[in-house]
Design goal:
Blueprint: H1 2-9, H2 14-33, H3 39-43, H4 52-78, H5 94-120, H6 129-135, H7 140-171, H8 176-189, H9 197-214, H10 217-237
Helix pairs in contact: 2-4, 2-7, 4-7, 5-9, 5-10, 7-8, 7-10, 8-9, 9-10
Length: 238
C-alpha cells in the first residue's frame, strides 16, 4: 500500500495544469487589480519612470514568479524533479542551432500567415495590447525591457508550464499526438485572441515537436525566444 501511494504521488496530474492556469489568472488579477502589488509605483523605480513598457515589465515579472513558483511547487508536491518535465540539457548540441533556426522559420511563416489572415478578415485584425505597448518604445531601455519581456521571461515561463508540465502530464495517459494538440490548443487559448488562435495553436504544435525531438524543454524555450525576438526587431524597425 505504501509503495502504491508513493507511485501515485510521483505521477503528474492533468488537473495540476488546470489549477496552475486558474491560480495564475486569479493571483495576477487579485494582486494587481487590488493594488496589493503597486505596479506603477514599482515601475517608477525603473529608468524612465512608470511608462507603459515598465509597467508591463513589472507585471510580466510577477507573472513569471507566479507561474514558475506554481510549476516547481506542484513538482515538489508530486515528488518529482524538473527533469521529469524535460528541463534537462540537450543530448545533442546541434539542437541549440536547430532550435534557433526553427524559431526564425516560425517567425517568417507566422508573418505570412497573419498577413494573409489580415487581408481576409481586416475587421478582426487588431494588434495585441503587448504589441501596442512595445511599439510605443522609444528609448534604449524601453527596447531592452521589451526584448527581456518577450524573448526571455514569456518564453521561459510559458514553455515551463505548457510544453513542460501540461504536456508531460497528458503524455502519461495519452499518445504524443493527442498530448501535443491539447497542449497547443490551451497555449493558443491562453493568449485570449480569437483572431490568432489557429496560428498560435499551430506554433504551439511546432514548439512541442522541437521539445520532443530535442529531448529537452530548452529546445522549445530557445525556439520561442527566437521567434519573439524576431518580432521585436520588426517592431523596432517600423
Amino acid at each position: 500500500m505504501h509503495k502504491l501511494r508513493l507511485h501515485l504521488r510521483r505521477q503528474l496530474s492533468v488537473l495540476d495544469g488546470f489549477w496552475m492556469l486558474l491560480l495564475t489568472f486569479i493571483l495576477m488579477n487579485g494582486l494587481v487589480g487590488s493594488g496589493i502589488v503597486p505596479v506603477e509605483r514599482l515601475a517608477g523605480f525603473l529608468p524612465g519612470g512608470a511608462t507603459g513598457i515598465n509597467c508591463l515589465l513589472v507585471q510580466q515579472l510577477l507573472q513569471v514568479l507566479i507561474m514558475v513558483g506554481l510549476v516547481f511547487g506542484f513538482l515538489h508536491l508530486r515528488g518529482v524533479t524538473a527533469r521529469r518535465i524535460g528541463l534537462r540539457p540537450f543530448a545533442q548540441r546541434r539542437w541549440i542551432v536547430l532550435s534557433i533556426f526553427c524559431g526564425v522559420v516560425t517567425f517568417f511563416v507566422m508573418l505570412l500567415l497573419t498577413t494573409w489572415m489580415t487581408q481576409l478578415f481586416p475587421q478582426w485584425a487588431k494588434p495585441q495590447t503587448v504589441t501596442e505597448l512595445i511599439m510605443q518604445a522609444r528609448t534604449g531601455w524601453e527596447w531592452l525591457a521589451a526584448i527581456l519581456i518577450v524573448s526571455v521571461l514569456a518564453p521561459f515561463s510559458e514553455e515551463l508550464l505548457f510544453r513542460g508540465y501540461i504536456y508531460h502530464s497528458l503524455r502519461q495517459y495519452r499518445g504524443v499526438t493527442f498530448s501535443i494538440v491539447i497542449t497547443s490548443l490551451l497555449f493558443g487559448c491562453m493568449h485570449y485572441d480569437l483572431f490568432r488562435l489557429l496560428p498560435l495553436t499551430l506554433v504551439g504544435c511546432c514548439l512541442n515537436l522541437v521539445s520532443v525531438r530535442s529531448g529537452s524543454l530548452w529546445g522549445s524555450i530557445l525556439m520561442h525566444g527566437t521567434w519573439n525576438f524576431m518580432m521585436t526587431l520588426v517592431m523596432m524597425a517600423l
